[in-house]
Amino acid sequence: MMPEIVSGESSANVSAFETQEVAHRVLLVADEVFRGSDLARELRSHLDSIENTEIFVISTATAHSAVDQELGDVDRPAREARERLDQILGELRKQGFRASGEVGDADPMVAVGDGLVEFRADEIVVVTHIDSEREHAERGIWDRLSTDFHPPATLLKVAHPDADGASSGVLEAEHAPAHEKTEEEVIRETRNFPPLRRLDVAGILVGFVGTVALGMLAVAVGNQDPGELSGGAAVVLLIAIGAFLLNVANIIGLLFFESVRYTGIWEKFFARTSIVFTTIGVAVALFIWLT
């Protein structure tokens, strides 16, 4: 999700930024307001000068609970993100930066990927909350930020604003240098099927074998009462159909989640449900057949 630009300079100006080869371009993805002077100090630590630094800000519409995040309830977070964007741009411009921005995806990592497509950054900076105050979408963010993207990356951790609404200073910072694509990343990009974890393999195998077994049991139970479909045969048939649909959903979900590097609560849901439902279904079908 990359909504329309709501504050700052137009997207045409972003393109103008990109034509200036001497400028140092920073993609800033922020889930919280912060003191702009802290970012300036971070950049000064590794740049000769920050006077020709251009910053493109994406304020993420991150929900405050796992349920809202997974269900895509972003109306309130989107409003907060627009307000946050105005504050951040004001802070940066006060420090002398040329800055523009927009509201971005609820997932910070998706926002980074979208931002790199729109604004070819020389450096990525992500502002999140300290561990004790982090949002659901911020879990594991540093591992992904430092490995999934190739420009130099910085993670700045801040606290929520205080009771007076004052912006937090940077409390923790982590840095990762630029890196080329690894052999594993190249292989991942050229694969026709995503890499599988043990749980994924188990879900597919149990689903396949279990669905075949349920089909055979449905036929066996049906043959016990030739000429009519008994209640037991109907139950086994429904279980077999349910297992088939669930296992198809497991494979489709696996392909989709891996394609977008999804890591939320639904990541392992289908595999686990497939294993549990199919196993219980086979046990129930065997009981009906034997009795």
Q: Could you tell me the radius of gyration in angstroms?
A: 25 Å
- In total, the number of strands is 6
Series of secondary-structure elements, N-terminal to C-terminal: HEHEHHEHEHEEHHHH
With strands numbered from the N-terminus, the spatial order across the biggest sheet is: 3-2-1-4-5-6
Helix content: 40-55%
Query: Globular, elongated, flat, extended or rod-shaped: what is the shape?
Result: elongated
| Proportion of residues in extended strands | 5-15%
CATH topology of the largest domain: Rossmann fold
Largest sheet: 6 strands, mixed
Any overview of this molecule?
The protein is of the alpha/beta class. The chain has 2 domains: 11-180, Rossmann fold (3-Layer(aba) Sandwich); 193-290, no CATH class. The chain has 10 helices and 6 strands; from the N terminus they run αβαβααβαβαββαααα. The chain has helices spanning 11-19, 36-44, 66-71, 75-94, 108-118, 141-148, 183-190, 198-224, 231-259, 269-290; strands at 24-30, 53-60, 98-104, 123-129, 153-158, 170-176. A 6-stranded mixed sheet has the order 3-2-1-4-5-6. The N and C termini lie far apart (54 Å).
